[in-house]
Amino acid sequence: MAIRVLLVDDQPLLRTGFRMILEAEQDIAVVGEAGDGLQALDQVRALQPDVVLMDIRMPRMDGVEATRQITGPGRDGPAKVLVLTTFDLDEYVVEALRAGASGFLLKDAPAQELVQAIRVVAAGEAMLAPSITRRLLDKYAGHLPSGEEPVPDALGTLTEREVEVLKLVARGLSNAEIAADLFVSETTVKTHVGHVLTKLGLRDRVQAAVYAYESGLVRPGAQ
User: Fold this and answer.
1) DSSP strand E in the chain: where?
2) Facing residues of 82 across strands?
3) CA-to-CA distance for 111 and 117, rounded, in angstroms?
4) Which of 14, 17, 4, 2 is CA-nearest to residue 44?
5) What does the pLDDT look like over 203-214, one tens digit per residue?
6) Any transmembrane segments, and where (predicted)?
7) Cβ atoms < 10 Å from Cβ of 110
8) Residues 14, 6: Cα–Cα separation, whole Å
């Protein structure tokens, strides 16, 4: 079945461009468009998309609040949100990740990168563009704790190897990179990531990365 995508952006020209790119793919179907967050909520309820391509800065309701309502408790469907941002790393992206976005992409990314990002998010993966994620978390370290706060008890449920994996996820490494770093297989890494998400009650790798920073397990800028 085709991946059902809802386009949310207050610029009609951009929505048209995204639609042309996505409709050229056999496994992706653009099911609707919205020009602001309120319209997006209505469209998500009516159309039940798999992925919402979400701009952040929009009138009436911005992409952060719309993401929170789409992915939060009592949500109407399984839609995942892929946030669009500008090259300068929008200051609201951290809030969008906390709100429940499954990843983010630069607006000027190549067409094939956009297509692949939607496929990755739809498949339940997240943490797009790891290097950008790492730079963003470092850049907006002011939003995050100093690292002097007490470590949450939940971290005590993780094994030593799972803590290692969580730290590497927070640094923005892909499964392949983590596997190489720890001298294990990618399948083993996926298993560890799954255990981390389950034990900490997290939805995906994006939440895991933010959790690692917010808990003080990883300090912004640390390697």
Assistant:
1) 3-8, 28-34, 51-55, 80-85, 103-106
2) 53, 103
3) 10
4) 4
5) 777 778 878 877
6) none
7) 10
8) 13
The 10 Å CB-count burial string (b at 16+, else e) for 199-215 is bbebebbbbbbbbbbbb
Per the CB < 8 A criterion, the answer to whether 88 and 79 are in contact is no
Token representation of residue 165: 């994996």
pLDDT tens for 30-64 read 999 999 999 999 999 999 999 999 998 888 898 88
Please give the order of strands across the beta sheet that includes 103-106.
28-34, 3-8, 51-55, 80-85, 103-106
Report the sign of the C-alpha dihedral through residues 128, 131, 135, 137, in that order: positive
Q: Would you list the DSSP string of 158-207?
A: S-HHHHHHHHHHHTT--HHHHHHHHTS-HHHHHHHHHHHHHHHT-SSHHH
pTM: 0.69
